[in-house]
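Here's what a typical entry looks like (UTP--glucose-1-phosphate uridylyltransferase):
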Amino acid sequence: KFCYPSGYHHHSPPDCLFSSGKTPEFSRKDFQGFQKLFHRFLQVKGPSVEWSKINRPPEQSVQPYEKIKAKGLPADISTCLSKLAVVKLNGGLGTSMGCKGPKSLISVRNENTFLDLTVQQIEHLNKTFNTDVPLVLMNSFNTDDDTKKILQKYKHHRVNIHTFNQSRYPRINKESLLPIAKNMAVNGENAEAWYPPGHGDIYSSFSNSGLLDKLITEGKEYIFVSNIDNLGATVDLFILHHLMSQPADKRCEFIMEVTDKTRADVKGGTLIQYDDHLRLLEIAQVPKAHVDEFKSVTKFKIFNTNNLWISLPAIRRLQDKNALDMEIIVNPKTLKGGLNVIQLETAVGAAIKSFSNAMGVNVPRSRFLPVKTSSDLLLVMSNLYSLDAGSLTMSKRREFPTTPHVKLGSSFTKVQEFLSRFDNIPDMLELDHLTVSGDVTFGKNVSLKGTVIIIANHGDRIDIPAGAMLENKIVSGNLRILDH
């Protein structure tokens, strides 16, 4: 529950920042959006869901991917593709992996960045089907400049690239509920005063940018939205065909790709049935007493991959009616100086309840391959995956389709340090589980199989020699090698 000291609910939104007549137009729109969000934040009392009203989604509302694939493809799939645009969420920085600048510019495979791979995928699609699927990047004020500089390099690729910017909202002092910004500047001492308000902001900023109307005018009917760091989020022709083949009066306006939970995904948002609508339930909305139930793999079996297929005319209609209702995520942060602030955010998938005939599709795990940590990076750089036209697919030489469980310790957190610890990436085709902790380095052509645990004690260092083959081994302290 949100609890305020008495009197807080009388606050109107902090508009000391809105008063400057010199505010540029984009900021005016940002502030109107923020004002709406802030008003709702003050009005919301108690949790956004009542636990007793939560039900599992009905069978027909989450379809297995196999059933959709079984419909096959029409001869004219390029007609379907001509009505599609691909949107990548590109607002994030690579700070959690020790990098400066946009996360999408981190090299993930053979010197290719997330952005390179995305462009290659869409270019391949356009060439193969002789079509023109545009790529749209939703940047934030943090990533916009660096991303635009790099876009020059794709000038001669067969893909039209558009960008638009997420809103810029003021961070709020947790105690006073007033913005901490001194003025409109985004740099210097004011840099920490602003934040991009989560990917749920896509609907209003896409609309405000004029790009939504431009794409509709060009005959585009759907967007495929995904996080740019999810290397499994490629355009799926079977899901696209399923959308395009619905009868006009039953047009599905929103598909959320979900996949089966494993122990690693217990915090992921899940689809529920609530008040006769499909709805996304995030861990932040779950009352404390029910968090364990939410995390259980038995009650909530699926989670949201954030690969979404959304109707453009429907976004236009809901924007015009101001009918997109997304739960507010209150994200508490502590700034460098120790000041406690809150960021009000929304999630793009939370809008599912506002769209007609929305559904989930339970897709294979291979469509969810996010790179959030150096442990994920190790997987996608390894021989577990082969790269073809920008798409990563599990190597045919791996005998079972599941991904190994990899946990690298804090010495591997930053990408530069991670890279310096491997002469080359080990052979991981037969690996089930890898845990590495402490000061560990790997020589050339190391092979890891089964369960491998390598723990260098504080002050010790372990160098795995070139050509070593570790199968079901525990390596500890001073390089004693034991059977697992």
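The chain is about 20% helix and 25% strand.

More examples are in the samples folder.
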